[in-house]
Amino acid sequence: MQIHKYDTVIVGAGGAGMRAAIEATKRSRTAVLTKLYPTRSHTGAAQGGMAAALANVEEDNWEWHTFDTIKGGDYLVDQDAAEILAKEAIDAVLDLEKMGLPFNRTPEGRIDQRRFGGHTRNHGEAAVRRACYAADRTGHMILQTLYQNCVKEGVEFFNEFYVLDQLLTEVDGVKRSAGVVAYELATGEIHVFQAKAVIYASGGTGKFFKVTSNAHTLTGDGQAAVYRRGLPLEDMEFFQFHPTGIWRMGILLTEGARGEGGILRNKDGERFMEKYAPVMKDLASRDVVSRAIYTEIREGRGCGPEGDHVYLDLTHLPPEQLDAKLPDITEFARTYLGIEPYTDPIPIQPTAHYAMGGIPTNVQGEVLADNTTVVPGLYAAGEVACVSVHGANRLGTNSLLDINVFGRRSGIAAAEYAHAHDFVPLPDNPAELVVSQVERLRESTGTERVADLRRELQECMDANVMVFRTEQTIKTAVEKIGELRERYRNVSVQDKGRRFNTDLLEAVELGNLLDLAEVMAVSALARKESRGGHYREDYPNRDDVNFMRHTMAYREVDEATGAESIRLDYKPVVQTRYQPMERKY
Amino acid sequence: MSTPTLQGHGHSSALDAAEAGAAHLITVTLRVRRFNPEVSADAEWVDYRIPIDPKERVLDALHKVKWEIDGTLTFRRSCAHGVCGSDAMRINGRNRLACKTLIKDINPEKPITIEPIKGLTVLKDLVVDMDPFFQAYRDVMPFLITKGNEPTRERLQSAEDRARFDDTTKCILCAACTSSCPVYWNDGQYFGPAAIVNAHRFIFDSRDEGGEQRLEILNDKDGVWRCRTTFNCTDACPRGIEVTKAIAEVKRALITRRY
Ligand SMILES: Cc1cc2nc3c(=O)[nH]c(=O)nc-3n(C[C@H](O)[C@H](O)[C@H](O)COP(=O)(O)OP(=O)(O)OC[C@H]3O[C@@H](n4cnc5c(N)ncnc54)[C@H](O)[C@@H]3O)c2cc1C
Ligand code: SF4
Ligand code: FES
What we know:
- Chain B: Its EC number is 1.3.5.1.
- Chain B: It comes from Actinacidiphila epipremni.
- Chain B: This is Fumarate reductase iron-sulfur subunit.
- The structure holds 2 protein chains of 2 kinds.
- By secondary structure, chain A is an alpha/beta fold.
- Chain A is globular.
- Chain A is 35% helix and 22% strand.
- Chain B has helices at 13-19, 58-69, 131-139, 159-164, 166-169, 182-186, 193-203, 211-219, 232-236, 243-256, and strands spanning 26-34, 44-52, 88-91, 94-97, 112-115, 122-124, 127-128.
- In chain B, helix 7 packs across helix 10.
- Chain B is built from 10 helices and 7 strands.
- In chain B, the strands form 2 sheets. Chain B has a 5-stranded mixed sheet, with helices on one face. A two-stranded antiparallel sheet of chain B has the order 6-7.
- Helices cover 32% and strands 14% of the residues of chain B.
- Chain B starts with 12 loop residues before the first helix and ends with a helix.
- Classes of the chains: A alpha/beta, B alpha+beta.
- At the A-B interface, helix 3, helix 4 and helix 10 of A face helix 1 and helix 2 of B.
- Residues 77-80, 82-87, 97, 99 of chain B line the site of FE2/S2 (inorganic) cluster (FES).
């Protein structure tokens, strides 16, 4: 075991982690631990754009953006945070441009902007061009640009280091962050990183679904690490299902395709979104469109021999426009479906896409231990976190924005905290939990296989807690997850070695997915209303009287029996100037 | 099978094929180059026979082996759709991304050979040491260099100037090009095509003012002049970047000092 000491440790090198690293490295001795090489992070898969009311192509302002974000989130958004997001968006985009990001340009040479779902002029009048973009590779360009600037700033990376535990030490009656424990993929060695400040930027958790736009590596490791140490997770029942994933594969086809004029059609060729969202049509918010798609499918208007998908039709758009604005997604259709989007519509279905919930933080990125108390020295930013700027449903292009705004904020805040504070002593035997977890898996002779449990989990989640949920389906999921968690104790791996043991790490990742799936299902069961991405057929309306509040889920362990359970609590939503209204598009 | 057609469009046979119902599985042989120094100093070929839908990816086939037959098989992957650059490998002797190569596109009748990319040290099975590759990338100063005060708004750039370097912005640093280059295999010092592609991305960016510095680095004896224009790199690039052309443009810029 090795012990390292840094002022600031950042867990993750996607957009949020690297944006934080650029700030933290300038201000403190910083290490970035990442399980992937930085440029492999899933931020690079983001396609459509990053929102900011630059008003480069038409009238726009950050107040409209704030409103859209709050309405899009079905009023579960903390309004102070949304205001910061929309205000700081403008500098966040300009900063990236100055760092070198090659945005698409207007004829005048300014950053070009396009339409995206839920972004409107003047509080819902009509769609507005707010998304700054680089073809359909905006995330790729952000990831590359941030990595380039990390190289420039000399950021210190520990690549292929998996953080598996968060260390907390109680000093003066307050639990403080003391550091993290990581597993080095190349050698199997365990490393303890003592740090004054730790920032989680480890991304989402989409891999507990089967049809998903998320990478194999998005397994919620950061959320699981803090949750297991008794810290809460916020709003985990809210998961976004993006309307247009490639049928069965889940590979994303950006909403920018509809922003450029693409149309959703059912088997009769009907533009069905006109029925569900007369004003915004195909560009209504994502939860609305995903439900509309499944309604069409359920009512027998789905396409294909099994009637289980609909079409994204781009055939009326000029090929030059597709080549210039949507080159990658049209290539995905060619590569993975063998069809030509110039002439054929693309079979699509909703795909599990984005975790609105996560580690609760305030607007400085400080992690919360309960509704109000911060954990000194602990920060989170990006998809792993819940500020909450996305509420019950995130608007497209607001996450690339979130990772930049709150990545930057947490990088500055953590480094300044590190300056002002001393190291907190490490707990005795800091690597104990990770060592025992890893050794147990390596030595286990159990009969359960990781791949089987993971497949069963994913199938269960797709069937029971996706776009439509009911008491019955969620209970089925809770039960199944419980069974899988039980069987997980009996899991074993074939690779017993130390070098690049990805077999072992997949087992660890599965453990994280199981924990988080349970939190999601239990949180969803208790929320007896429909709001944003959480739709209960048995409670189809939003219930502001009882549920205008964030869910806070805590892991509890019975000291006598060791039995684990989940305790739910609730946190008020911060409302400033926008009164909840019915959401219409 | 007849699905009602879209207004104004017929259903092409490609769409019908894409939407065809239940998968029909075929059996393929994956012949994988295995190496684990914890077990043996020598690499060996191992065959795995698996049933698979030909519309699936080589990455899916590798996962089937790892998840159902032999958990020790080791490879990198993340996004599974050709955007993260994790899984460049030699498939039937050609550098490709496993997640962007469909079984049906590589003759599933014969054994499919899978080896690590060449020119970088193999650490285990299909995993190679990427550090020298990223070091060469860092050496070309892959970041925007500007002088003077920052503007308050964005720097202006015309759409034409933006188009000038569009091709090389697509790079995902997968190393398929560099590890297909015979000069790189034989000369550990050569930067390799990927680093030059990333230098090109900045040299031809109208906003950049670091061109001279970068060109000097590339003018070095281990720089662009090593390139023998074999086009392997362009053939290998999964992003369709015209790598050889980019290298030629950098060479020309070195001679003319115009870019
Ligand atoms: C296909 C797709 C398209 C999208 N398009 C858009 C869009 O157009 N606009 C928009 O706003 N949003 C979009 N999103 C959402 C947005 O891209 C993501 O939410 C965002 O990029 C997440 O960034 P992140 O930095 O939080 O996490 P990631 O980029 O996922 O990075 C996570 C990092 O954490 C590291 N990590 C994870 N676990 C560990 C561990 N245990 N130890 C150490 N390191 C760890 C990883 O190595 C990685 O570096 C899209 C998402 C997807 C999937
Ligand atoms: S130029 Fe192409 S082949 Fe080379 S590293 Fe970049 S993406 Fe890969
Ligand atoms: S797994 Fe990302 S490029 Fe293949």
